[in-house]
Specification:
Length: about 100
Amino acid sequence: MSMAPQDAVGRIVGYGNGEYIGLPYDRRYLVVGKTVKFGDDEAVDLSTNDAIGMWGGRQGEMRITKVDETSAEGSFHFTATASGTTSTVQVTDGSFRILLGRK
């Protein structure tokens, strides 16, 4: 497994049980109260352990709730779709905390 800092990949990525969520990331987002609306240009990646496997979250938002010198925190929710199906996945009450590297 390899990991890269969010500044390098432009994503906030969280893994669990072989699945992951990748939120859009730009250091300019890190302002308390900032809301990032998901859409075609700012979509969430959702990888699941099912027959579909890859989803795109283009409805929802991420809100920055805390920023200090070493970390940032926020909440998010989204509805994801996948090509070839009419199914959707709803993710509610999501949260994240990332450690910040040097600017």
